[in-house]
């Protein structure tokens, strides 16, 4: 059965205090829901999205080709997160460019487009905004919160900010903070954007232009980190784009992998907002719950009471299994209920989005146990 998605929006007038000391008021949050909330509202699952995703988690939009949600392999009728049993909620983060209020929208206090003046947001701020939306939906406690990559960081933060509101948390292909190497990749991508002549200090909307060159390079850098060396070699190897003859050029495309990266960059630059990219990558950089506990992750996770599932992938070098095991160790030190699966998959970081049968079976079994709790 095809799951039909319906975009929704909810407005919040009350200011949302941010960790930076700033606040945002008069903002909208775009969201979608799938399935039916049961009578005692005990079957709600919140799905948190990663960098370039949105609230469109599952299903399709009627009459639109290729409109499947970004985690449609995972969520839907009969799927690991079964919408015949669970009420699933996807929320677009504040500062994004897919419907929630962000840099492309007008500041209600000035009447002008935010642009570069949109305040810096953190993972914790996003969780606070999501909690407000759940309040409006009348959901006091989640059966589960889940996410991959940056979404996994939000899921982890939920268990620390609102421990009484989360019974289970799935943290997939994620980490307790970014390594210096990861921060470095984000910084290079940001420099590509801010040094684009069309960036105009983040106020490019006023000039009627888009810093597409910077966005292309940022996406190319990011995409390299999402794939494993094995996958790139298998898909492209050293194949030349124009056949067998080397053209001896330093500026044109020679290899198939170059063509692929440029295609990905071009596509990304047509739909993603440059200021949003800066905001989201900085939120990634800032996330570090252990920093408030002298770097002690075990102390940081002591506040969590949820039951956890952590999943990592062997070829994911951006969020390596080592980082997931750090979280597992800290949870076990606090005697928390924790399941861990390390999937031997060749796809790199993108594996969390793919339909690997072992991965899907782990998640399905975990959610089967959750469903048994409220169906008993």
TrEMBL record:
<dbReference type="InterPro" id="IPR008220">
    <property type="entry name" value="HAT_MetX-like"/>
</dbReference>
<keyword id="KW-0486">Methionine biosynthesis</keyword>
<keyword id="KW-0963">Cytoplasm</keyword>
<dbReference type="InterPro" id="IPR000073">
    <property type="entry name" value="AB_hydrolase_1"/>
</dbReference>
<keyword id="KW-0028">Amino-acid biosynthesis</keyword>
<dbReference type="Pfam" id="PF00561">
    <property type="entry name" value="Abhydrolase_1"/>
</dbReference>
<feature type="binding site">
    <location>
        <position position="219"/>
    </location>
    <ligand>
        <name>substrate</name>
    </ligand>
</feature>
<comment type="similarity">
    <text>Belongs to the AB hydrolase superfamily. MetX family.</text>
</comment>
<feature type="active site">
    <location>
        <position position="316"/>
    </location>
</feature>
<comment type="function">
    <text>Transfers a succinyl group from succinyl-CoA to L-homoserine, forming succinyl-L-homoserine.</text>
</comment>
<dbReference type="GO" id="GO:0008899">
    <property type="term" value="F:homoserine O-succinyltransferase activity"/>
</dbReference>
<dbReference type="InterPro" id="IPR029058">
    <property type="entry name" value="AB_hydrolase_fold"/>
</dbReference>
<comment type="subunit">
    <text>Homodimer.</text>
</comment>
<keyword id="KW-0808">Transferase</keyword>
<comment type="pathway">
    <text>Amino-acid biosynthesis; L-methionine biosynthesis via de novo pathway; O-succinyl-L-homoserine from L-homoserine: step 1/1.</text>
</comment>
<feature type="binding site">
    <location>
        <position position="350"/>
    </location>
    <ligand>
        <name>substrate</name>
    </ligand>
</feature>
<feature type="site" description="Important for acyl-CoA specificity">
    <location>
        <position position="318"/>
    </location>
</feature>
<dbReference type="GO" id="GO:0005737">
    <property type="term" value="C:cytoplasm"/>
</dbReference>
<feature type="active site" description="Nucleophile">
    <location>
        <position position="149"/>
    </location>
</feature>
<dbReference type="GO" id="GO:0009092">
    <property type="term" value="P:homoserine metabolic process"/>
</dbReference>
<protein>
    <recommendedName>
        <fullName>Homoserine O-succinyltransferase</fullName>
        <ecNumber>2.3.1.46</ecNumber>
    </recommendedName>
</protein>
<dbReference type="GO" id="GO:0004414">
    <property type="term" value="F:homoserine O-acetyltransferase activity"/>
</dbReference>
<dbReference type="GO" id="GO:0009086">
    <property type="term" value="P:methionine biosynthetic process"/>
</dbReference>
<keyword id="KW-0012">Acyltransferase</keyword>
<feature type="domain" description="AB hydrolase-1">
    <location>
        <begin position="43"/>
        <end position="355"/>
    </location>
</feature>
<feature type="active site">
    <location>
        <position position="349"/>
    </location>
</feature>
């Amino acid at each position: 059965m095809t799951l039909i998605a319906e975009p929704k929006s909810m407005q919040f007038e009350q200011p949302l205090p941010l960790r930076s000391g700033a606040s945002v008021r008069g903002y909208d949050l775009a969201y979608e829901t799938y399935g039916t909330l049961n009578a005692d509202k005990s079957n709600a699952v919140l799905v948190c999205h990663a960098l370039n995703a949105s609230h469109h988690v599952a299903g399709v939009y009627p009459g639109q080709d290729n409109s499947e949600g970004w985690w449609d392999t995972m969520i839907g009728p009969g799927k690991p997160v079964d919408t015949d049993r669970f009420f699933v909620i996807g929320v677009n983060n504040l500062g994004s460019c897919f419907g929630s209020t962000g840099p492309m929208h007008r500041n209600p206090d000035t009447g002008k487009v935010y642009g570069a003046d949109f305040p810096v947001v953190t993972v914790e701020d996003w969780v606070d905004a999501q909690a407000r939306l759940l309040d409006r939906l009348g959901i006091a406690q989640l059966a589960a919160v889940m996410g991959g990559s940056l979404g996994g960081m939000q899921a982890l933060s939920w268990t620390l900010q609102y421990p009484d509101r989360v019974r289970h948390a799935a943290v997939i292909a994620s980490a307790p903070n970014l390594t210096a190497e990861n921060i470095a990749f984000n910084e290079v991508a940001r420099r590509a954007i801010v040094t684009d002549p069309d960036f105009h200090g983040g106020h490019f909307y006023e000039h009627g232009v888009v810093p597409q060159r910077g966005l292309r390079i940022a996406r190319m850098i990011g995409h390299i980190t999402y794939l494993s060396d094995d996958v790139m070699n298998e898909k492209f190897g050293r194949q030349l784009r124009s056949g067998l003859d080397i053209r001896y050029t330093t500026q044109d495309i020679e290899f198939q992998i170059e063509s692929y990266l440029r295609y990905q960059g071009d596509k990304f630059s047509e739909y993603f907002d440059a200021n949003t990219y800066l905001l989201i990558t900085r939120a990634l950089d800032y996330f570090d719950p252990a920093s408030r506990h002298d770097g002690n992750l075990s102390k940081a996770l002591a506040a969590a009471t949820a039951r956890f599932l952590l999943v990592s992938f062997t070829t994911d070098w951006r969020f390596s299994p080592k980082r997931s095991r750090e979280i597992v160790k800290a949870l076990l030190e606090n005697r928390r209920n924790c399941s861990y699966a390390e999937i031997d998959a060749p796809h790199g970081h993108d594996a969390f989005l793919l339909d690997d049968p072992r991965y899907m079976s782990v998640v399905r079994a975990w959610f089967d146990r959750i469903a048994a709790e409220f169906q008993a």
